[in-house]
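Case study B.
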Amino acid sequence: MKPFTTLKVPETLGFASATMDRVAAKRNDPAFIAEAFAAPDARFLILKEDVPVLSAPSDGTALFERSMLPPDLRSSEMIFLGRHGAGGQPVFVHVEATGSENPEQAMVETRTLIDLRSIAQQGLVPHDEVGLLACAKALSTWHRTHGFCSRCGARSRLADGGWKRVCESCSAEHFPRTDPVVIMVATHDDRVLLGRQPRFPPGMYSALAGFMEPGETIEAAVRREIYEEAGIRCGAVRYLGSQPWPFPMQLMIGAETEALHDTIDIDRDELEDARWFTRDEIKAMFRDEHPQGLKAPHPVAIAHHLLRAWFRG
Amino acid sequence: MKPFTTLKVPETLGFASATMDRVAAKRNDPAFIAEAFAAPDARFLILKEDVPVLSAPSDGTALFERSMLPPDLRSSEMIFLGRHGAGGQPVFVHVEATGSENPEQAMVETRTLIDLRSIAQQGLVPHDEVGLLACAKALSTWHRTHGFCSRCGARSRLADGGWKRVCESCSAEHFPRTDPVVIMVATHDDRVLLGRQPRFPPGMYSALAGFMEPGETIEAAVRREIYEEAGIRCGAVRYLGSQPWPFPMQLMIGAETEALHDTIDIDRDELEDARWFTRDEIKAMFRDEHPQGLKAPHPVAIAHHLLRAWFRG
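Model:
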């Protein structure tokens, strides 16, 4: 099997297409940030409690012009994502105050809040803007949940265009967090192992997944998770591809692994079910024709593409 | 090129060999933790300000019996790593108080503090114990730097055998952090790109590396880092293997990538030098016979094995 993400992620894979130039070397230059913020072609993503704001009726973009923002915003309070598109437009993220008593409330009638999964699944904005929103959401959630220094408990402040928080009290620097998660299909005798969590949509089965832990390789984490959740010992592990998954701030590391036996022992705290699927069943699920109505994961998720890779291979 | 970590990490790769059964489903059971703690065969790793403590003279193991610990320790203050070895010995991590006024000071004469890199490079303890120490160090550093809730600033407390911290004030739960880092060799015309940071040992060149960012795939991060640090645009990316790197708490994701040109533009804030190496030079570096005295990275680091894989391939 050939890895599918050597040069180009599949068009349908969600959240993986942030193509902006992050201009990382300039983030710590307040003059650069201020100038980018003031540029006439600067554009703004707006999030409210981590939910993207789109115009209503939708005009097909998540990028707002400055006139749609509340007045008196300062560049030092914004997240600078980078330069986007062929023209290199500076893109900032505006995180709105919560509650109803905020200056943006008056704008609500011309806007609509839509969760990021739905935006990706329904293709409400261009593919590369889904990537921008994914980056914006991970960063804004991180700021929202990291307003205090984990080392001393004092309030910290946003710095470096939103790519750092600084504690004035103990001088600690804090950086955005990304949690690596392994997600994998185990295979045995031309069948593939999938499971379902109680929170999944009815009938949907997907690849097993779990957070990596300190002291683990990717390969060890893949084998541990399959054993913990399905009681199956696995051998070889093959990396297939990766995807940012901003719910809230994960990196999905996709793999397949060879099961050494097919007896399943399900961890009922984690999974509602886990079972082997034949090639014919997977084919039927891709066509939404499975006799029991079972469904494959949506193409925005890497699990779909892990299954496709196994099916093709 | 075949991936080198499909089933087995190279014997010499450091920190990647924690083979303990983590017994993750039992971590939230205080009775289980207390029983494991009280077991006669329980063993203890000791860290002081993140530096492992070994016996002096070294007896070839980092695992201490209970008698080497201060009295009155409680299981609720310890990190439970899992069950280790063929006998399934419970292994805990004891993090000592800092400063000289602590109950362990009397034991200092029979003990020695040695940094984890040196332990791995000199093979002072068995390979699988280096893996235990790597896990222990990442967790203890995390606890030391996360004593306060990042959401509300209150003190948090250790829970679930050290695999969680809980804030009694706002009910937030915090989990150990692992930072994904890409580390890669770029190749062009049968040469390989290596660089050196000012802090490297004299003459050593290694693979370029950098922290992954929100909204990135592994493949995108590889290409961004090579471009930022060496000004080179890259195409295909191939995953080769991974390694936990507890300095302080990273996951190294090893790759190779095809450079689209060979002109280098070095970021002097990050690198002291970067250059292309021929196959003959790499061969000489592995034998420590490079005419200018240049050196390859040590085999405990994944960078060494990325180079070996390229050299073999």
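Residues 1-8 of chain B have pLDDT under 50 and may be disordered. The remaining cases will be described in the next quarterly update.
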